[in-house]
Design a protein that fits this description.
This protein has 96 residues and is mainly alpha-helical. It has a domain of 62 residues. Helix content is 76%, strand content 0%. The longest helix has 30 residues. 2% of the residues are buried.
Length: 96
């Protein structure tokens, strides 16, 4: 577990992408795939005449869409911060 944490910290330092931003992006990807899958499930339920299942899948899809909107907002905030090497630290001299 400690080695994994160190590797993640190094990946963040090297790539300039904070782990939280990576995690949010991964969750966004999963949510978008779920939205597409629910569309297929709704079509299957529709073709089978199973209105309750179709309504359930629609609810699930709407829940995922709400989560996607929240993720987009979080990512917009995180991506506007920039990479760690672009942010001055306490030891840096800032020339204006």
């Amino acid at each position: 577990m400690v080695i994994e944490r160190v590797e993640r910290q190094n990946a963040e330092r090297i790539s300039g992408v904070p782990n939280v931003t990576f995690d949010l992006t991964a969750v966004l990807h999963n949510k978008l795939e779920a939205i597409a899958a629910y569309e297929v499930y709704k079509q299957d339920a529709r073709e089978a005449g199973h209105r309750q299942a179709e309504a359930f899948f629609d609810q699930c899809q709407q829940f995922e869409r709400t989560a996607v909107q929240q993720l987009r907002e979080l990512l917009a905030q995180n991506l506007s911060v920039g990479p760690p090497w672009a942010t001055p630290t306490a030891g840096d001299v800032v020339v204006e």
